[in-house]
Amino acid sequence: MFILDESEIYYMSDIRKLLEQDRLEFEADQKIKNLDNIVQALRNGRLSIFAGAGLSASSGYVNWKQLIKPMSDYLGLNINTDLTMIAQYYENECTREGLNRAILSEFSKVPTKNDNMEILASLPIDTYWTTNYDSIIEDTLREKGKTVDVIYEQIQYKNYTPGRDAVVYKMHGDKNFPDRAVISKTDYELYDVYRSVFSKGLVMELITKTVLFIGFGFADPNLDRFISIVRHTFEKYSPPTHYCFMRSVSYEDYLDEKGNLTRQKRIEFEQDKKLQDLKIRSMKGYGIHTILVDDFTQITAMLNYIRDKYTLNKVFISGALDPNDSHNYGCHFDKPYNINFKNGEWFIMQLSKRIIDDGYDIVNGFGVGIGNYVVSGAYMGGVQRGGSDYVSKHLTIQPLISVEQQESDKKDEVRRKLIRDCGTVIFLFGKTLYEDNNSKKDELDKDGTYREYEIAVKEVKNVIPVGATGLTSRYIYNEVYSENQNTPFIDRLNAVDENINCMQLIDDIMAMIESEKRKKEENIKQTLMKDAFSNDDMSYDNLPDQINVFVSFHFAGANLQSRLILSVLDDEPGINPVKESGKIEDKRKIKQWIDRKIKSTSVTILILSKGMTKSIWVGREIQKSIEENNKFVLVDISSGQYDKDFLSQYKIGSKSLDEIYPIHSVENCNEKEGFADVGKWVRDAVADI
């Protein structure tokens, strides 16, 4: 017999923890790959939803088992009996009218808000299948302003509402017509007599699209039917790929009222867990990949991931010319490119073509002098990707000119909806003539391009104002980059006429879109990992989704180092550095800027340099950061020669900053590599490590 000493036991325990963490991380990666495949199907217009009772559960409705439970109690039967058979026995004893009353009684309640359906309704999904009797799906879609056809009898297949956005196939009927609802054993036996078109339609859906099953539990009596459809359709072929959210069998569901797991319940749990594992492997053989969740709130996090990642691939092009001077692009862009187009027109077409070529979608409000060239360029880009059919899926045009006479609030509502569904907003030209040192605030407030800029900022979108195009976009450029001096390519975005290279400008714009997309993709991935795949052993598990950071430094003594730090933080997922401004001259405005920016951050990086006491702003920034309860990261670039007495003036409670926070000394402070760990220092500060 071998006896392990205490150190060996701890070692083996650590090994088990590492192996478990590796397993969890592998499973999380697999789930993310599946979610990414769903996003791709959505982008291709090939995603359908099949909703089970779990989708409606968060609105207060019961699942199938809960609906049948009062019937089984009445009959004195075990609820684990075949549910369709219990419903049949109940109908035999209480007539169909009694069965109908049970359905009407349960589904007459007023539903609560359904977060998962809200997310789905915001996406361009045009087909929903469901076995639910309630109206959660169609009601939510209509609340989102969508035109919906609801089909709960096969005769309705011949109906079509012009311009419909979605169709909902209710395979088991509707709550308002309980006589026709599919619930009992007889209803299932006669299904293909009265509802064969639904079965055939579902088969075609499973053949031609990617179907995401949501809200199906392990015990759902309908799941076997759907698997059977796939199996018999593709017996000799590789089946198409579909996905299913399914709640894991949890031992907590088997605890008694005192929270104990009895021997009998333990056996039930182990059997059900094994049966679920077998079911999942069987489903995968028929093309249905299961994404397990611990509870249905995790589905919300995953749907958020799908929506956010889909949104990042959409680019809104904002811009319009003055309707009274609709062909004046100004200066360089007003010159002829060839006999057919001006430089401005050619630039818009080539930019739109490149956006489509690079796999992004375009959204546009068809502004005067802009929209028609956006459309032309998009079609140029779509030629080699499937022609007009491809472009119709990846180009969204909502002519804002059609709401030009409406109230400004109505127009802004349309703008907000379009921008909210995009990851990046590019600003070109505009209606307001640019004049140095003249803000033309009244004109800008009425300028649609500027209004779209304000909306984009509020919605926290990636904003790319092409100042080189002049007009309103030059004003927006100055506002954005007066506080952001370290963004790549900004000089070329605002190039003077003689230095404009349109193709280089387009390259720069696309590089900025791609860079921001990668950064945000990593952010939403980290958010998903925290919300849906959390693991107590993982580092920084309780950090906020995004850490906003302010960098305080003496401009003359640490300007280079601040830029290096900001450059490193720009590549750090989940960290958003506020960029210091060097263009504000009014001291009152500088104070306001400092106060506003620090208020929006949670960490202040303080660069300790020899001349920091000469700055009239560093002291204010330290004090304001203390008032706002910011964490500090102290970075010494002076080899310990900074003014320690100056630093000791600023205290949190009775302790000075250097008594609370470690000082990170950087020897190679003139190179980016010297600040490679600054992201870790920020996270350590927030996590109080």
Question: Could you give a short description of this structure?
Answer:
With 689 residues, the protein is an alpha/beta fold.
Mean pLDDT, all residues: 83
Question: How much helicity do the residues have?
Answer: 40-55%
Q: How many strands, which pairing sense, and closed or not: the largest β-sheet?
A: 7 strands, parallel
Strand content: 5-15%
CATH names the topology of the largest domain as Rossmann fold
- Based on CA atoms alone, the radius of gyration comes out at 30 Å
Number of domains: 3
The CATH class of the largest domain, by name, is Alpha Beta
Number of strands: 19
CATH-scheme architecture of the largest domain = 3-Layer(aba) Sandwich
Label the structural class: alpha/beta
pLDDT < 50 runs, ≥5 residues:
535-543
Q: Biggest sheet: strands side by side, in what order?
A: 3-4-2-1-5-6-7
First CA to last CA: what distance?
43 Å
How many distinct helices?
28
How would you sum up the global shape?
Answer: globular
Describe the structure.
The chain is α/β, with parallel strands linked by helices. The chain has three domains: 221 residues, Rossmann fold, CATH 3.40.50; 205 residues, Rossmann fold (3-Layer(aba) Sandwich); 144 residues, Toll/interleukin-1 receptor homology (TIR) domain (Rossmann fold, 3-Layer(aba) Sandwich). The chain contains 28 helices and 19 strands. It has a seven-stranded parallel sheet with strand order 3-4-2-1-5-6-7, sandwiched between helices. The chain has a five-stranded parallel sheet with strand order 10-9-8-11-12, with helices on both faces. A five-stranded parallel sheet has the order 14-13-15-16-19, sandwiched between helices. Helix 1 crosses helix 12 and helix 3 crosses helix 4. The chain starts with 5 loop residues before the first helix and ends with a helix. About 1% of the residues have low confidence.
